Amino acid sequence: MLPVSSALFLLGLAIILIPPTLHLTSTVQGSNRTISLIGNYYDWNYSQPSGANPPITVAEGDTVIIKLTSTDTTHQFALDVDRDGPMFIASCPRSDTCSAMFTPSTPTSISITVSFPPGTYKYFCTFHSTMVGDFVVQAPPTPDFSVTFSPNSLSIQQGSSGSSTLTVTSQNGFSGTVSVSASVSPPGPSPTFSPTSLTLSSSGTTTSTLTVSAAGGLYSSVTNGNYLVNVTATSGSLSHSTTVQVTVGSSSSSPMGVLNIPLTVWVGVAVVIIAVVAVTIFLARRKTAK
Questions:
Q1: Does the residue 180 lie in any domain?
Q2: What is the CB neighbour count within 10 angstroms for residue 152?
Q3: CA–CA dist 116, 17 (Å, integer)
Q4: Across all residues in the chain, what is the average pLDDT?
Q5: Which of 22, 60, 86, 235 has the fewest CB neighbours in a 10 Å radius?
Q6: What percent of the chain has pLDDT over 70?
Q7: Residue 117's domain is classified under what CATH number?
């Protein structure tokens, strides 16, 4: 057994050598964008088609590359990230995001990862108070999914079935499990899904087959007419609904008013009837012979 001092030494060494588990916050999926700004004493993009000091709109998580050129003198792009107001001090204000200084002969660019909260910020030139515009940060789009059917209408006969393919598509980086279910209005055909649970990856698609049966029971059939299959796809708090139009018509082999009975049953009934008739004739002849 190790002495207490040795055990404490080993415990301390383990704490030093084995790093604690890091809990990382999830990142926001964004896109890459490139924007051009032209510096001019009067305004950014002065006399340009985009207008003076054009608003720049991005989403949280985006990476924005701003290409900077000048038409007249020295400029410096600055983004007022801390919202303490534009400061025209010919140098980068503390806590703001700034480019290098640029002139007509020395264009530059700056890459900004939008990791700050949604809201309206100001971008400006640290030299010229007329060069101030809005830098609008929008909340990132919510991960979601869409559902579509192909075909979105079915025409089936009594006693048969039809199928349609449900396609579930990821939107804005959604990934997870989507459950699908169906009901019919008014009651009649029977809808089933295979599978009923779908695993969707980010930026991917997955499918499920909807089968609608108009077979009915032994002594009944689904009434001719139009039906609506209501389909719901759910994942957590997200839910989307869509419909499939179903038309049921009479089968050429099963006219209206005829029992919905398989052919084998009819054959069996015919055999029994023939057998009964044959026995009846046989017994009648025996009785006559006596």
A1: yes
A2: 12
A3: 34
A4: 83
A5: 22
A6: 75
A7: 2.60.40.420
Torsional sign, CA 277, 279, 280, 281: positive
Residue 198: CA atoms inside 13 Å, Cβ hemisphere, count? Answer: 29
User: Which CATH number goes with the domain that contains 245?
Assistant: 2.60.40.10
Backbone torsion region of residue 216, taken as left when φ is above 0, otherwise alpha when ψ lies between -120 and 50, otherwise beta:
left
Residue 30's pLDDT band (cuts 50, 70, 90): low
- In the chain, the N- to C-terminal Cα span, in Å, equals 114
- What was the pLDDT predicted at 286? 65
Do 220 and 128 share a structural domain?
A: no
Domain coverage including residue 41: 27-138
Mean predicted confidence (pLDDT) in 200-217: 89
Q: Is 283 helix (H, G, I), strand (E, B) or coil?
A: helix
Nearest 5°: phi and psi at 152? -100, 10
| Residue 290 within a domain | no
